[in-house]
Design brief:
By secondary structure, this protein is α/β, with parallel strands linked by helices. It contains 22 helices and nine strands. It is about 50% helix and about 10% strand. Strand 3, helix 11 and strand 4 form a beta-alpha-beta unit.
Length: about 450
């Protein structure tokens, strides 16, 4: 294993110790600081080798008689465009500092941090998927600040504001904030001034501009400049809250650009899927707000913490910050449930998959003559979408719809008959879960007996 890392001879003992630790430690063990960089390389290689692309290369190498075909690890290094020995010595420390800003200790968030580690030590184009407010720009910044390109500027381009006619001028204006562009001509010269190009909301990039950016991404395959500087071509990171693959199949997004930008994908979970992190996140945000307003950090009442954990957070981290900021207008000491104010209209989803599900399920409800009270029926569907694999009680649905518990139980009984929810437990401890396959149209309706087990 150490020889695969291709380290310098002076580091052989450290590399050997790190590789031994990696082979013998448990999945949740935290590596010593000196091992962090090499452990990340091994983890990244293990994930690549288990991927379909890695398995394809390994199969081709094992059956090939050609001496020119690279072995899987050589191919892995080729795709990353650098070897371990080329990394600066302080990269691991920069990454460790950046990861401390990604607050959370849930299992799903630790998985995300593991992928972010691999992205920081890589140089491939990266696509960050996540709902509005999940922290996509923060992840992009951590990757850049922890990478080999941290000494060059981070260029954030809001794709929704780019104009087909004037996009070069817009990009020139953005870069002029940190570099002299008076003598620069063309996109290549402009982008050579930055280390990372972050395409925010890449799904909103005008179709006329997508071939241009696809061509810019392809230039990473031949990064050498006449002067010999390998890093004149920037690293590209993009973010989206849409399913770009789905948009590409509908010809709303160029498939070639999707393939170029999504070599590495990072899926950020919505806040409702990491509820165990909410108290920690709220405390962290309150500390930031207290520092901003120059006040003593307020304390969350236990009932407030429970209410924050039960709320579905359609606006994710952005909404959590807004709700806590509002609470500080009412109190500066102990935040109680009465100090919380949520925007009732914010429950509507912001991605294509959820909108498609709503339309599809509305049609099913209409055919079955399913109705609820005064609340919009779309609100009920979004509640189900947000629950995903989580179990919930009828009281949670009653609170969301402002209905009686008996009314909520009646709704759930009808939803069970239609195959959208499943019942668990007995009369004294009844909980419900959502049949996501049915909700997303991946599973047709059937008889209740085939769907549920009490």
């Amino acid at each position: 294993m150490p020889e695969l890392l291709k380290g310098n001879s002076s580091d052989e003992e450290l590399i050997h110790s790190a590789a031994t630790w990696w082979q013998t430690s448990g999945p949740n063990s935290v590596p010593p600081r000196d091992y962090l960089y090499y452990i990340t390389q091994l983890n990244e290689y293990a994930r690549w080798r288990a991927s379909k692309l890695g398995q394809l290369h390994e199969s081709a190498f094992s059956y090939s008689e050609s001496s020119f075909l690279p072995n899987p690890f050589q191919q892995f290094l080729r795709e990353r465009s650098y070897t371990v020995s080329e990394m600066p010595g302080d990269t691991g420390l920069r990454l460790e500092h950046g990861l401390r800003t990604l607050v959370g200790d849930s299992r799903i968030w630790r998985d995300v941090i593991g992928v972010v580690q691999g992205a920081a030590f890589s140089d491939v184009p990266t696509l960050i998927n996540g709902e509005v407010g999940t922290g996509k720009s923060q992840i992009a910044r951590v990757i850049h600040d922890s990478s080999m390109r941290a000494d060059k500027p981070f260029l954030s381009i809001p794709c929704q504001f780019l104009s087909h006619e004037h996009f070069k001028l817009q990009i020139r204006d953005l870069i002029s904030e940190f570099a002299d562009v008076s003598e620069l001509r063309g996109l290549d010269a402009l982008f050579s001034q930055v280390g990372t190009v972050y395409l925010a909301d890449v799904d909103q990039l005008p179709l006329q501009l997508q071939p241009i950016f696809a061509e810019q991404l392809r230039k990473r395959h031949n990064p050498e400049s006449p002067g010999g500087n390998t890093y004149t071509v920037p690293r590209y990171i993009a973010s989206t809250n849409e399913d770009i693959n789905l948009l590409a199949t509908r010809q709303l997004f160029r498939h070639d650009l999707f393939l170029e930008i999504a070599i590495l994908q990072i899926d950020l979970p919505p806040l409702r899927h990491r509820r165990e992190d909410i108290a920690m996140l709220a405390d962290h945000i309150l500390g930031q707000l207290a520092s901003k307003y120059r006040i003593e950090k307020p304390v969350l009442h236990m009932d407030t913490q429970h209410k924050l954990e039960r709320y579905p957070w359609p606006g994710n981290l952005s909404e959590l910050r807004t709700v806590l900021d509002r609470a500080l207008l009412k109190t500066k000491r102990i935040i109680k449930p009465v100090h919380l104010f949520f925007d009732a209209h914010n429950w509507f989803p912001m991605n294509t998959r959820d909108r498609d599900a709503i339309v599809r399920v509305l049609n099913v409800f209409e055919e079955a003559d399913f109705r609820i009270g005064a609340a919009p029926i779309e609100q009920l569907i979004v509640f189900l979408l947000q629950k995903d694999q989580l179990q919930f009680k009828a009281s949670e649905l009653a609170e969301m719809l402002d209905a009686r518990p008996s009314t909520a139980r009646s709704y759930l009984t009808n939803l069970r008959r239609l195959g959208f929810v499943k019942k668990h437990g007995d009369r004294k401890s009844t909980t419900w879960s959502v049949n996501q396959a049915r909700l997303l149209g991946e599973e047709p309706g059937g008889s209740p007996n085939d769907r549920d087990t009490d």
